[in-house]
Amino acid sequence: MEHPPIAVFVNGVSAAMNExxxxxxxxxxxxxxxxxxxxxxxxxxxxxxxxxxxxLRGNESxxxxxxxxxFIEVAHPYCATCFGRCYPxxxxxxxxxxxxxxxxxxxxxxxxxxxxxxxxxxxxxxNQADASGAQxxxxxxxxxEPGIYGRTDPSGSVVVPTNAASGN
Length: 168
Fold this sequence. Notes:
Elements: H1 4-20, H2 29-53, H3 58-86, H4 90-95, H5 102-135, E1 151-152, E2 158-159, H6 162-165
Antiparallel strand pairs: 1-2
Helix pairs in contact: 1-3, 2-3, 3-5
């Protein structure tokens, strides 16, 4: 895993589940599931708090979102699977609590909507510049294809081209 803080957390959960698996008391299934969920919630809350308190530059923001994505798409399902190996139907007890991590999921929505807004604004500016350039006899660059990943705005945020965002 390319994100050491998430890897350390996952390794800790994995080690705990490996110790528990040979003699997992069924009477503690729900209590232990709550503890695993609490651990995941602490990580989630820490990621949200870090995002709120820090101003991240372009590359840092990309790496941070990658870390959040690894937490949601890799760490959470892996912890659920580990718990499921200790207890029958245990994975579902962890997966059912995924809504507790909506704060981290919201971090993906905000930059995407900001990127689309920036893209629309920059597309309007480009269209206006093309129109004024065409009026002055300058060649239009409207046939240029933006890069597959878009371009960056002055703040370093990636701007998704309008045609790429709509899937055309």
